[in-house]
Write the structure tokens for this entry.
Amino acid sequence: MTAVAADRILSAAQAFSVAQRLGADFAPTAGARDRATYTGLLELFLEQFDGGTGLAGVLAVPVMLGAGSAHALAPDLLLEPVLVELGATAALPGLYLSDRIFAEDGVIDRYSGRWRSVAQALIHSSKAANHA
């Protein structure tokens, strides 16, 4: 499984770029949540992908950072539809992280531990279907 991880807000665009070049199967998509659906940088980058096919074959996980839990559903409600519109498979739940403590609170490790086998199965079945 080829994976590309975005571990900082501004590296989401870089992660997609690397994912595309490597033919990655999995690309977490991160953006900040601050009075808008997603940041202009992420929007500008996502506009580079063709609608319906630009992220075809990629398992995308919507990830958003924010200051409070009031926007905890934002990854699933606001970012996931954009990724799906671009052709990505967004079969895993989105992840909302506190922008102040996400690097230390263990949420990312718990999430990846919980969903790793599901992601691997989805990627494997997608590859098998494409080779059939």
In short: The CA atoms of residues 29 and 62 lie 5 Å apart.
